[in-house]
Automatic annotation (TrEMBL):
Keywords: Signal. It comes from the Bacteria. Residues 1-27 form the signal peptide. This is LppP/LprE family lipoprotein.
């Protein structure tokens, strides 16, 4: 009887969350922590350092070469980030009838995602009515591991 009771106790403990479950298979297929070269379809490049944690959800913690950082959560097999860059758009000043208009920096909402297997993704930029406009509101990019 003890032999039959032991599996039942293990099943009960696992059901109550008293036994740690192995990491999900999804976490095993994630990109490795390290340094990556970022290149988008407009020719912009950069360096990202990525550290991934998976407790309780998988999150890529990204730091860029410019010192900015953000987190991207793994959702449906891709890392996704929504963030506001307060000074993401710089508008030039211009002169209109001896009055200087425009200028300054303005916030930009960034929605970005990438596949941890193919290391390719997309980014969308949006803003709310600054005195100038974004030239390009969508980019595709790739990441290449360099370290």
């Amino acid at each position: 009887m003890t032999i039959k009771a032991f599996p039942a106790v293990i099943a009960l403990m696992a059901g109550l969350g008293l036994i740690a479950a192995p990491a999900p298979a999804q976490a095993e297929a994630l990109m490795a922590d390290g340094t990556y070269h970022y290149a988008d379809d407009d020719g912009d490049t950069g360096t990202w350092t990525i550290r991934t944690t998976c407790a309780p959800h998988c999150v890529a913690h990204v730091t860029t070469a410019s010192g900015r950082s953000f987190d991207a959560r793994l959702e449906n097999g891709r890392f996704v980030s929504f963030r506001l860059i307060p000074d993401g758009l710089e508008c030039p000043t211009y002169l209109a009838s001896e009055v200087v208009l425009g200028g300054g920096t303005h916030p930009v909402l960034v929605t970005q995602w990438w596949d941890p297997i193919t290391l390719s993704g997309e980014v969308e930029f949006s803003h709310s009515a600054p005195p100038c406009a974004l030239d390009d509101q969508h980019d595709r990019f790739t990441l290449t591991r360099i370290g």
